[in-house]
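Notes from hallway chat w/ T.B., transcribed later so I don't forget. T.B. wanted the structure written out for a chain they're using in a teaching module, and asked if we could keep both sequence and structure tokens in one place. Agreed to drop them here.
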Amino acid sequence: MLHQSYQPITSTILIADAQAVNRELLQELLTAPGCKVITVPDVTARVLQIVVVYDDLTTVRSHKHAFSITDALQTMKQGVAQNWWDPHIFDQFERLVRSCTAALLSHGVAAGM
């Protein structure tokens, strides 16, 4: 028997630029039962793109192996060269990943460098 406060799982859709989305589609999404639409500022969306791709590259999936940190960043640099991501945001992200990895290694935690 399910608990009385059980709520079904709902969908969440992130929209970076509500102005760029077809108005009819946006209205349909806003009124869909169980669907929550969140608009985020452009810079947030650009950061999230980089983080999500990095996470996907460095995580084992049933259909692929996980990239090492170095290989993931190198692969992503190729995307930056093709203007897939903001180079300034990616540079800051890469510095953060490398400094965190260095800190973990200095404390004896293994990392995929």
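Follow-up for T.B.: The CA atoms of residues 25 and 62 lie 33 Å apart. Might be a good example for the class.
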